[in-house]
Amino acid sequence: MALVLEWLRTGQLQLPLPGSGQTAQRWHQLARLAQIDVVAGRLAEAHTDAVAILSELGGPPPGSDDLWGVWAAEAPDAVVTARGAGDAIVLDGTKAWCSGAGLCTRALVTARLSDGKRGLFAVDVRGSAVRPMEHMWRNAGMAESDTRSVQFSSASAIPVGRPDGYLSRPGFWFGAIGVAACWLGGARAVVAPLYRRAAEHSADDHLLAHLGALDAAITAAEAALAVAADQVDADPHNRSGLAELTARRVRAIVEKTVDEALMRTDRALGPGPLCLDERHARAVADLTVYVRQSHAERDLASLGSLAAADHADG
Question: Is pTM, for the whole model, over 0.70?
Fold first, then answer.
């Protein structure tokens, strides 16, 4: 996608790292980019997350011209394994759900080690040893993200961090909040026609009521992100152990805002924008798919468990 490459070229993807004291600025920029274009924002978030991971785990410094992906999804029928030792590591197998499969120049890829642990590896994905597979995407939503399976055939890889370090690091949960910031940007994009219509003299109470509810929801989501940013900056190494709880709370709040944006904008404006406004229709389709990175009630159950434990401790 040309837009994310333009952002890379012009330095718009050079963001403060999580916990640097400027986390709010980082998430504000991610939301802004996703509001411009949901798909490009999603690819931008992955690139900036990769940069943060490389910094946190001591990986190779990213080149200024490289667009990174984070290909960490695990599927039962698509497994990548790592073999070798030291710097002589190669990856074999298929990795599913690789966004930017034909666009990224490098990627952080999770792979199974011989002892069953999960390692993280930096891979140059431009060579013949890494092959994006046939497009299987059938939904208009997020279609431009070029998300597909990728085949690795003895692909050279550089270890990043220790085994299982990808999931156990504090930044995993900070990155999860970055995704929520992009969801919020997408929600703003979806709601934009409603704000424009409300500015017209023809806006009725039905439309204004929906807008009022959405304005409150978006403001609440923004506040949740701001509070979380302060918490991350105050505890960048997660010594309090609250990073997961904070991330799950923020994601739940923003996901609810997204649900409200999709439902209320549709009910307030009817089919017109969905059928005649290409930008709005695309934002709705893209955001509907993107927010399903949340696991819905499963994530809420995890949040409930953490919240109950935190309440008992308090």
Answer: yes
